[in-house]
Design brief:
The protein is α/β, with parallel strands linked by helices. It has five domains: about 180 residues, no CATH class; about 80 residues, no CATH class; about 100 residues, Alpha-helical ferredoxin (Fumarate Reductase Iron-sulfur Protein, Chain B, domain 2, Orthogonal Bundle); about 130 residues, FAD/NAD(P)-binding domain, CATH 3.50.50; about 130 residues, FAD/NAD(P)-binding domain (3-Layer(bba) Sandwich), CATH 3.50.50.60. The protein has 34 helices and 21 strands. The strands form seven sheets. It has a five-stranded parallel β-sheet with strand order 9-8-7-10-21, covered by helices on one side. β17 and β18 form a beta hairpin. α18 packs across α20 and α22 packs antiparallel against α24.
Length: about 750
């Protein structure tokens, strides 16, 4: 049974009971509640209701006791099967797309706002186990450090049960004895569901309006949509069934270890734990108490990629083979994004990788083992396992909103982030069929959220705070978004005419379409960010009126050796990409020319692929090191070589001379000291960029190092008062995703410093 098939049958079963109730109301058969099989009272079939009724009346009720015994017998035989297959609460949550906030070691993110996030490993014995401390302003998702620590402790000690349901159970029984009637029945979500159905039916059939409809609906909304951990932390009926289910010995899930990914292959897999509504890890735990919490929903078995989990009566366990099972062959094959052929890619500046379809993204996300290793290496700590879980259920828009709620910018990072160096490199599936296509799935999720009208929420702040952002690059945009979510008033200044910084000036359109940046700018502007373009901050703006300043000016000065200065035909990568990155420049400058590129980073590869599209006859990348040391991503380098570029390694340029047949570069092999030459018509220097010293920052007290990088603390605070910085202005030329992380970190520190 597949994951989606199992979910379908659980939904159908629960729906059948609701339909039975509706039929009973319509046809007056006596099936008005789950208990109406000739017994007449819900207390006669609900075990908790039976206890409450007898305590309320302070007497023995034979009918209630009989119903209690029947239910107890069912629970002893089948466990908490009612919770997994019959209870209407999970059904309502599935229909309304409400995700349970269950006990888990995975980071929980506020989907409305997020002010502070600190992620750290809790234990070396559980890979990917993370604890999140989120202080969210203006919403009900804030947690204290103590609560977070307690949650982490429970996640690391699976033998430590939650006491909440048992406390509520004791309170429900005690209140019945004190007040003389079953108090909890008034707020029980199961009873409220059927009571609301009955009240609505009486309204439509007999025209009997009642405040009970508002009461029932209000409590249901509170319990299902506000108290989203009801089933795990509060439900006394579940607690009572758990106590009875301790006697359940046979109808329990089990793992066939020779086909389990973790047990047989040693691959860190948490799919079953994450799929379980109770967070039970069958691989690590076999205690009767925790197994008693199993609701028999089969979600773990349906989600298992190798079908290693089995339930009695549903399927036969596979016979154990004498030979060791090759678990790798049991795992689903990887689905990779489709790329255009190289000869077609060279003909245009549009994006060359076809986005995954939603169906492809769902199947690929099913391969995720939820190990969390990707989160450990992600600079912005994107909740990738949670995204994968939503994508596997087809909830792409929710997955995109989850990523955006943490400020992950999936529309940008999915296209620019070097996944092969970060998340996909760390993926546990890398050695068993290929890493999960995290970047491609992230793109599908981000686009789905934006198409659905995703907006950036603005939270209420304790006090009015205004912040200025100098530079609209990835660091500045990330900082602006995070501060907006915290309730600050944000104004972004930039000398250019549009947002994006280096992304707009130097990233080719085949990697990042201009409309993606435009959409991001409009999204922020619509949320309340004020953009002021074409502004020289030093001359035109008085920044002293702002409570805080963030500097994200990047590294706009190209590095070029002295021997290449003032030589005709030698250009910097920034100048070249500035004219041609969007395919709008004068193609005659490059068409029919021999192009030589100095450098081995992403910018050098971008120049090579751009020159090929402009019609260069030959494109040669000269890199001073070996091929395995090339700093460009493996994917981009592969694409460039497929499109016709050549890579010359161990080629350190020493001089350039203008000759009759072009520009002659003298190269030297650093290992052998051998000299060689190469001739071209255009030489593009892609040795990186440096920042620039801003006098107004120096006047405020900011300090630069000997490479013109701003000196900042770990939180991004410069030596100037209330001035923070991040991105290339601090790091030098680096990844866009690192700039985004810098923006988040600085925003969190601003919030702490300014009291947001």
């Amino acid at each position: 049974m597949s994951r989606r098939t199992g979910r379908f049958w659980r939904t159908l079963t629960a729906l059948a009971f609701l339909v039975m109730t509706a039929v009973g109301l319509a046809w007056h058969t006596g099936w008005g509640t789950l208990s109406s099989f000739g017994l007449g009272s819900i207390a006669q079939i609900c075990p908790l209701g039976a206890f409450e009724a007898m305590l309320a009346d302070r007497t023995f009720l034979p009918q209630a006791f009989f119903g209690l015994c029947v239910v107890a017998f069912i629970v002893v035989i089948f466990g908490r099967i009612f919770c997994g297959w019959v209870c209407p609460v999970p059904l309502i949550k599935r229909v309304t797309s409400v995700k349970d906030e269950k006990l888990s070691s995975e980071p929980q993110r506020c989907t409305t706002c997020l002010s502070q996030t600190s992620l750290s490993k809790n234990s070396s014995t559980e890979k990917g186990s993370l604890a999140t401390e989120a202080h969210a302003k203006g919403c009900g998702a804030s947690q204290t450090n103590d609560a977070s620590d307690a949650k982490a402790e429970r996640s690391l000690n699976p033998n430590l049960p939650e006491k909440g349901p048992y406390i509520v159970l004791g309170g429900a029984l005690a209140s019945s004895a004190i007040f003389g009637f079953p108090v909890f029945c008034l707020i029980c979500p199961v009873g409220l569901t059927f009571a609301l159905m009955i009240a609505l039916w009486r309204l439509f059939e007999f025209n009997e309006p009642s405040w009970s409809i508002v009461f029932f609906a209000g409590f249901l909304i509170l319990e299902l949509f506000v108290l989203r951990r009801w089933c795990h932390a509060f439900c006394p009926l579940g607690a009572l069934m758990t106590l009875l289910a301790r006697l359940n010995k046979n109808f329990r899930p089990s793992i066939q270890k020779d086909t389990c990914v973790s047990c047989s292959a040693g691959i860190d897999c948490h799919v079953c734990r994450d799929a379980c509504p109770e967070g039970i890890d069958l691989k690590a735990i076999n205690s009767p108490e925790l197994l008693a919490r199993c609701t028999k929903c089969r979600a773990c078995a349906d989600a298992c990629p190798t079908h290693a989990i089995h339930f009695p009566f549903f399927e036969k366990r596979q016979a154990k083979s004498a030979n060791k099972v090759d678990v790798v062959k049991l795992l689903p094959e990887a689905i990779k994004p489709t790329e255009e052929p190289a000869d077609q890619r060279r003909q245009h500046f549009g994006e060359t990788t076809k986005p995954m379809t939603l169906l492809e993204a769902r199947h690929e996300s099913d391969r995720c083992l939820r190990c969390g290793e990707c989160v450990n290496v992600c600079p912005v700590k994107n909740p990738i396992p949670d995204m994968m879980a939503l994508m596997s259920e087809g909830r792409a828009a929710e997955a995109g909103r989850l990523l955006m709620s943490s400020g992950g910018m999936p529309d940008l990072c999915s296209r620019l982030c070097p996944q092969d160096k970060l998340c996909e490199k760390a993926c546990s599936m890398g050695g068993v069929g290929g890493a999960v296509a995290i970047g491609a799935i992230e793109r599908v999720a981000g686009e789905a959220a934006l198409v659905r009208g995703m907006r950036i929420p603005k939270c209420r702040a304790k006090r009015r705070v205004t912040v200025a952002v100098v530079g609209a690059g990835p660091a500045g945009l990330a900082f602006a978004e995070r501060m907006l979510r915290l309730g600050a008033r944000v104004t972004v200044f930039d000398r250019q005419a549009t947002a994006g910084g280096m992304l707009a000036m130097a990233v080719p359109a085949f990697k990042l379409a201009p409309d993606v940046l435009t959409r991001r700018e409009k999204l922020l502007a619509k949320a309340g960010v004020e953009f002021r373009f074409g502004v020289d901050v030093n001359a035109e703006v008085d920044l002293s009126t702002f409570d805080g300043i963030f500097v994200g000016t990047g590294a706009p000065r190209a590095v070029i050796p002295e021997w290449a200065l003032s030589v005709p035909g030698v250009v910097t990568a920034l100048d070249f990409l500035g004219r041609h990155a969007q395919g709008q420049g004068d193609k005659t400058e490059v068409s029919g020319q021999r192009v030589v590129i100095l450098g081995g980073g992403d910018t050098a590869v971008d120049c090579a692929r751009t020159a090929l599209r402009l019609g260069a006859t030959t494109v040669t990348i000269c890199y001073r090191g070996s091929k395995d040391k090339v700093r460009a991503t493996k994917r981009d380098l592969r694409l460039a070589l497929e499109e016709g570029a050549k890579l010359l390694t161990q080629a350190d340029a020493q001089t350039v001379t203008q000759m009759a047949d072009g520009l002659t570069l003298a190269l030297i092999n650093r290992e052998t000291n051998e000299e060689r030459t190469i001739t071209g018509d255009i030489v593009i220097v892609a040795y990186g960029e440096r920042g620039e010293r801003l006098q107004w920052l120096v006047d405020l007290g900011a300090t630069y190092d000997d490479r013109d990088r701003l000196v900042v603390s770990d939180a991004g605070l410069t030596t100037a008062k209330h001035v923070w910085a991040g991105g290339d202005a601090v790091r030098g030329p680096a990844l866009a995703v690192l700039a985004v992380a810098d923006g988040h970190r600085a925003a969190d520190d601003v919030a702490r410093s300014l009291g947001l």
